[in-house]
Amino acid sequence: MVFNPLILAASALIPLVVGFVWYNPKVLGNAWMEASDMTEEKMKGANMAVIFGLTFVFSFLLAFALNGMVNHVNGFASMMLENADPNAADFFKEGVEKYGNSYRTFKHGVLHGVLGGIALALPILGVNALFERKGFKYIAINVGFWVVCMALMGGIICQFS
Q1: Count of the separate structural domains present in the chain
Q2: pLDDT for 157 beyond 80
Q3: What global pTM score does this model have?
Q4: Domain extent for 14
Q5: Which residues are CB-contacts of 59 (< 8 A; sequence separation ≥ 6)?
Q6: Which stretches of the chain are DSSP H helices?
Q7: What is the model's pLDDT at position 15?
């Protein structure tokens, strides 16, 4: 698997940066506060160092998962591991040299990030929102945020890994 911890760490900063803009009161912050029943009073007293630190850790885990989604060499490697042919290692090496960088673009990573956001973030956040009795606006704001984050993260991971 292609794994670059520095790229994953850089992409893990994206939710912090996008969140600063997305949840700003001048963008969607007020709508999110209303949809989530959040108040200024509830927000006071939060330990922001812990919140931002854990956000980075969780985002790094997400970047690690996205790495497997946006870099296609993993499927090829899996196919080779299942092959008992003694020449499989040579075939794998030749295949990676020839095709390993195919689809290694920002655009391709964005595509997989968006698909991942729709296939993963939407169901997870949607189910939680249903049980929390939150409305469509709440789901749309939060899922939209994660689709944008995963798109940018996927793009950076795919382009630079």
Answers
A1: 1
A2: yes
A3: 0.86
A4: 5-160
A5: 11, 12, 13, 14, 15, 16, 149, 153
A6: 5-12, 14-22, 30-35, 40-43, 48-70, 73-82, 88-99, 106-116, 122-131, 136-160
A7: 98
